[in-house]
Design a protein that fits this description.
eight-stranded antiparallel beta barrel; six-stranded parallel β-sheet; single chain; disordered C terminus
Length: 666
């Protein structure tokens, strides 16, 4: 007997809840789960409106199937966006042997008695982000029942446009529904009107649902802001229905997506926009933080404040996260000024986002979570069958035979506090790597490096398509190497023509494994100022950055008390490493490293960088690599910079001219 799930939801709604219901059912089917669907909306619109014929036909079959006694029921609950006392009490009816509540918004909007009833009625409380899980616990949800099952995107649908079309204006995009106060579009309109002058080539496009009351409210708001908006660049309001498989046309026409939400459980449009190769600006608290952790996703500073009175009843203690309008203005201006660099960078990062956040991965994670309930559901089914046959007695709990094909997903505790890394005025990424050096005769080293570019597998792990990057790095330190002593590195990076400032801080080093905090952003005066401020706060005496310092930094000159001491060129090949179930767990990086001005010798390095889902997998991938090529691959506890310093034979202090010609930069 296989795992069987009955999914009860409004499959015809055109908002994010309908998208999740339709896509998650399809993803569970692809993960080997038997799916039944029960429509609970007011009307079932023509399903052909929702895209792929294959998916539509499957959904029709599930909806038309004969009703059976459900083993596991997933109840897709949603709040009513009006004064809330007991939102949708009917979701407590017609439950199964084991039951799941999927709540697609901030759980604090539920009345306390509703939360307590959910604790009693459901075996699992599904949240679509770690933020929602945090808020579910704050609202009184049982922490032992809380699970994080995220949303996703269709990686074949949400792609960067093939061609860049010249446009008369830079377009900021925001997609909003009737819950406009939560989405913060009022802050966005105000920030845009104050930041951009009428003669600047910028516009704001608001795509809203064509509900009469909502359209009237937007029109009233725009009229009330008439004086300021008449002095600002163009603000367009587009009230239209976009089928989900066509919304990508809207993304293709925009340059930056902005979502200044006061409370956001996940933020599907922001993820879709990022997967289409667009920079995004989002509030620094909420579900969007889970995927907005790359250098083209900008997080708005915020203040936690009491929610507007009278908005929802029964949840008087709720707060929301008010974006700071001044910071939103700063980020919009930053993206506007660096549009070309950020666009190119966002399109490079879009590929990894599509892999990480595909519905296929989400389906496997949902299945893994549902497996916890299978013994209870199976016991109830067998007991029911015995009673029907006139038997009685205990029923042994056992797993169905599908367990052999279950995905090897991360088995960490189901509820945890979302990790909040240390910041330099914004979030930092944690880089976890295994480093290797290829040894042996030059011919063998080259052969192995080329072999790893084309091999389909490393042990039991699958390798994705290779991508090529040319990287040139220029490293800075003080004349007495204070950054190195404090565990920092500071560099200027040229990646395929785009320039970035990067700062790293060593957290932990254990043989070949290194953990470092990393900040990387397009080079600007504001970025260099923040980096040098943080280093000063860490006890390193540096000057305050000006635009002249940025120019000197970019051209390889001494500035701010820093001197360039090492230049490295890297021809890089990158490949995604996946498990047999398709879970991306690491990034395989093959580096051909040279040190201009120091040696003509080329060095072959291999790095394995842990992906967002790769915790616990990195060492297994490293073991597979060593088992396959151990005679040539040696774990290395030294970095490229350490090797470069050794080549200069000046380990006492960084050279003022170690392979560097001042004024030439990269």
């Amino acid at each position: 007997m296989g795992l069987r799930v009955t999914w009860k939801a409004d499959f015809a709604t055109r908002n994010g809840m309908g998208v999740v219901a339709r896509e998650m059912c399809n993803a569970l089917h692809l993960a080997g789960v038997e799916v039944h669907a029960v429509h609970e909306g007011e009307r079932l619109e023509p399903l052909e409106l929702f895209g792929s014929n294959v998916k539509v036909q499957r959904l029709k079959q599930w909806l038309a199937a004969d009703a059976q006694q459900p083993s596991i029921v997933v109840r897709h609950g949603a709040p009513t966006y009006r004064p809330l006392r007991m939102a949708r009490p009917e979701i407590f009816d017609d439950l199964g042997a084991a039951n799941v509540l999927l709540w697609p918004s901030d759980p604090r909007l539920m009345a306390p008695e509703y939360v307590q009833r959910a604790n009693r009625s459901f075996d699992q409380l599904w949240c679509d982000s770690f933020f929602t899980a945090d808020m579910m616990a704050r609202a009184g949800g049982d922490p032992t029942k809380i699970r994080v099952v995220p949303g996703g995107i269709d990686p074949d649908l949400f792609l960067p446009p093939h061609h860049t079309v010249a446009k008369p204006a830079f377009t900021f995009l925001h997609v909003a529904g009737p819950q406009w106060l939560l989405k913060g579009f009022d802050i966005l309109i105000s920030a845009f009107a104050e930041e951009f002058q009428p003669d600047e080539a910028a516009e704001l496009l608001l795509v809203i649902k064509p509900h009469d009351d909502f359209v009237r409210m937007v029109q009233d708001y725009v009229a009330a802001e008439g004086d300021r908006l008449s002095r600002s660049p163009r603000v367009r309001v587009h009230a239209s229905v976009y089928e989900h498989h066509r919304i990508k046309e809207v993304y293709a026409a925009a340059d930056c997506y902005v979502q200044p939400s006061r409370s956001e459980s996940f933020g599907l449009p922001a993820l879709e926009a990022a997967c289409c190769g667009m920079p995004i600006i989002v509030t620094g608290e909420g579900g969007m933080v889970d995927f907005a952790q790359h250098e083209t996703a900008f997080q708005i500073e915020f203040d936690e404040r009491p929610m507007a009175e009278g908005l929802w009843k029964g949840n008087h203690a709720a707060t929301w996260f008010e974006p700071r309008k001044s910071d939103l203005r700063r980020l919009m201006r930053h993206v506007y000024l660096h549009r070309e660099v950020l666009r190119d960078r966002a399109r490079v990062r879009a590929a990894s986002l599509r892999e990480r956040w595909s519905w296929r991965n989400c389906g496997w994670q949902a299945r893994k979570t549902l497996e916890e309930l299978w013994p209870k559901a199976l016991t109830a089914e067998r007991k029911s069958a015995r009673c029907a046959a006139g038997h009685s007695g205990d029923v042994a709990q056992s797993m169905a035979p599908f367990s052999a094909t279950a995905p090897t997903w991360d088995d960490r505790p189901v509820y945890r506090q979302r990790h909040r890394p240390r910041v330099v005025d914004r979030d930092v990424t944690m880089e976890v790597e295994l480093k290797y050096q290829v040894e042996g005769p030059p011919g063998q080293r080259r052969a192995l490096w080329e072999n790893l570019q084309t091999t389909l597998t490393v042990g039991e792990f699958q390798c994705g398509a290779p991508s090529k990057i040319c990287v040139q790095d220029l490293y800075y330190d003080t004349p007495t190497r204070l950054l190195k002593v404090a565990g920092f590195t500071l560099r200027l990076r040229d990646e395929n023509g785009a320039r970035f400032a990067t700062m790293k801080r060593k957290v932990r080093k254990d043989g070949a494994r290194s953990e470092r905090e990393e900040w990387e952003e397009p080079l600007s005066g504001e970025v260099l100022s923040r980096f040098t401020w943080f280093l000063r706060e860490s006890g390193i005496p540096l000057g305050e950055a000006t635009e002249e310092d940025v120019q000197r930094f970019a051209t390889g000159e001494a500035t701010l008390g820093l001197v360039p001491f090492l230049r490295i060129r890297t021809d890089r090949i990158q490949r995604t490493v996946r498990t047999v179930t398709g879970l991306p767990v690491a990034l395989l990086t093959l580096d051909l490293v040279t040190y201009p001005g120091l040696t003509d010798e080329a060095f072959y390095d291999i790095e394995l960088e842990q992906s967002a889902q790769g915790e616990g997998w990195l060492e297994l991938v490293g073991q597979a690599l060593e088992e396959a090529h151990g005679h040539l691959v040696r774990p290395s506890d030294h970095s490229k910079v350490y090797r470069g310093l050794a080549l200069t034979s000046r380990t006492a202090a960084p050279a003022a001219n170690g392979g560097i010609t001042h004024g030439n930069g990269l």
